[in-house]
Amino acid sequence: MRAKLWMRFAPFLSKRYISTCRTSPLPPSSSSSVIQPWLFIGLGNPGEKYQSTRHNVGFDMIDAFAESQGISLTTHHFKALFGEGVVDGVPVLLAKPQTYINLSGESAGALAAYYKLPLHRVIVAYDDTDLPCGVLRLQPKGGYGRHNGLSG
């Protein structure tokens, strides 16, 4: 199931690099029979100044995925534009933190905690100036460079 969900999300990861629900969120569930959601977080900076820049590729990826799946990102939840839906039977939560990128952990951490998600159910998309444009790198933890706050 995990690979199937990634296959639906992956085209939007690279497509945006190359070409340059509900009104209230679901409460966390304690039922073990419920499929735990994936939380996809796209990093960027709010405001027109940063629109369509490489720095906001995380926002662009979330927007493209949300549009392709018919998920609305109109709810404000934990300092983020937020939407939720189901993809191939798997619940997904989409978020674009509306803090500046260096403070996006305030939003991302609060969302993961609220939904009681382990870190392996949280995917963060962001630009990496150490990679050439159009290259995608998937890694299980944060890395080197400018976003080394992703060390989970």
TrEMBL record:
Name the UniProt record assigns to this protein: Peptidyl-tRNA hydrolase, mitochondrial
Name of the gene encoding the protein in the UniProt record: LOC125534464
Pfam families referenced in this protein's UniProt entry, alphabetically: Pept_tRNA_hydro (PF01195)
Signal sequence bounds: none
GO MF entry, a single one: peptidyl-tRNA hydrolase activity
